[in-house]
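User: I'm preparing a small set of examples for a lab meeting where we compare how different chains pack in three dimensions. I only have the primary sequence for this one, and I'd like the structure in C-alpha cell form so I can line it up with the others. Please keep the answer compact; I'll paste it straight into my notes.
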Amino acid sequence: MKKIGFFVLLAALIFGLSFAGQASAQTSGATIILDGQALSLQKKDKIEIIKGSVMVPLRVIAENLALLVTWNQQNAQVKILTGTGDIELTIGRMTASVGGAELKLNAAPVNRSGTTLVPLRFIGEAAGLEVGWDNAKKVVSLASPQTSEPTSAPTPTPTPFPSASPTPSPGATPTPVPSPSPVSGGQIKGIGWSNDRLAISFVGSLVPRTYAAADPARIVVELPKTSFDPAFASIQAFDAATQSGAFAVTDSSNATRVRYAVTDTDAQTIAITIELTGNKSFTAYQEADFETSVYVIDLKTSATPTPSPVNPDNGKKIIVIDPGHGDGDPGGVGATNKLEKNFNLSLALKVEALLLREPAFQVLMTRRDDTFVPRPERASLANAANADAFVSIHANIADGKPTVRGTETYYYKNSGKALADIMHKHVLGATGFTDRKVKNANYQVLRETTMPATLLEVGFLSNATEESILFSDSFQDLVAKAIVDGLKEYFGVK
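Assistant: Understood. Below is the C-alpha cell output for the 494-residue chain.
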C-alpha cells in the first residue's frame, strides 16, 4: 500500500482538520482508510471530534508511515524524529514545535488510556493528499497522489534490464525506476557494496532517477539537489579536486566497480554508476527509519537465506544480536569522524564471544562483518529462528549539539518493555553516562520482530568525550558484560 509522504503527515499533525460537530465526541466504530485500505485499529484506538477537529491515534498513523516516534512520559511530550526538523507535541498544549518553530494548533493532543490522539488536517492540493470525513459512516479517508512513492522500503518489485532488442545507445535515456517524492535535498553519508547490493546512506531526502543502460552494461543513479556529506571524503575514496571517487567490486559475478561523482554543480547532481558484467535485473527501494535512510539497488534474484540456529530445540534461549548499520550505511559519524557501524560491530562481537560461553544461550548475529543488511532481513532472521530476544546495538548522534550525552534504551511493543528496562539498568551501570531513560519508539527492527526486542543507544558519538570512551576496548568489555548480565537477569539465568 502506498504511504503518505512525510511532508503530508507533518501538515496533518500541525494543523487540525476542522469539521462541524460537537465540542468533544467519540466516534464509536470509526475507520481510517489509507489509499483504499482500512488501517488496523485496536480496541483502544478511537477517533474523536474535539472542538470541531477530527483526532486520530498517532500510533496508527506512525506505524503505517514507518515513522520514529518517542514518548516522554514526564513531560507528556511526543516527538516525531525526521531528517528535516523534529516535531514536538505536548498533551494539552495548543502549540507544537516543528524544527524549533512554534505553530498553533486548532485542537490540543490528548491522551486516552495510553493512546495519544492528534489533530488531523488536509492541506489539499498544495500537498496533493485528499482527506475526507464521512460523518454518517464514521470513516476518515486518506488518499495519496498516484505518483507518490513510499519513503520506507516496500516489498521490492524486480525491474528488468531493458530489452536487448533494440539495444539502447550509450547516450540514450532509458525509462527511470519510480522513486520516492522529495521533501528537500539530501546529503550522501556513505556508499557501499555487499551481497550484490548497492547501499547509499543519506540524510534529508533523495529523488533518485535510476535506470539501466548498455554498451557498457551499467546501472546509473542520478541524484539532483544532492551533495556529499562533509565527512564523506574522510571515510571513502574521494578526490576533492574532481569531486569523484570509485571502488572495485571484488565479491560479485554481476558487478566490477562502483563510481560516483558530481556531474552538475549548478543543479547539485551526483551520479552513481554500477559497472556490470552484463545485462542484469535489479530492484530499487528506500529504507527510512531514524537518523539516516538508505537507498538500495539490489541485484539479488531471491531473498537472502535465513540461517537456522545452532542445535534448535535444545532448551537454550536464542539471542539475536544486531550490530546496527554496516558497509554503505555507516550510521552516525562522530566528532572525530569515527563511524557508528564500527562501534556497533566491535561491541556486538564482544557480546557474542561472552554469550558463547554461557550454556543457557545460543547466539545469532545479523552481521559479523562490515556488511549491509536491510532492516527487514534483520527482523526476518530473528523471527525465522524463533528467537527469544532481540538486542540491537547502536551509538547515538545529536547533530549540532556536541554537549548532548548519555545512554538511552528503546522498545516498541509492550512485550519488549521489561527487557528494555533490565538492559538499560545494566548498560547504564557500565557506562556511567547520563541516564536518558527507557523510551518507546517505532524502530523497524523493534516493530517487525515477534519476540521481546530492545535497541541500545550506548552513548553519543557527536560528543567528543563519549566518542573517545565508546571506542575504548576496556569500556566495550564492560558494556558487553553488562548486556550479557542483563540477558541473564531477564531470563533468570544464574
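A couple of notes for your slides: Confidence is low (pLDDT under 50) at residues 1-23, 122-129, 145-183. The first strand starts at residue 24 and ends at 27.

User: Perfect, thanks.
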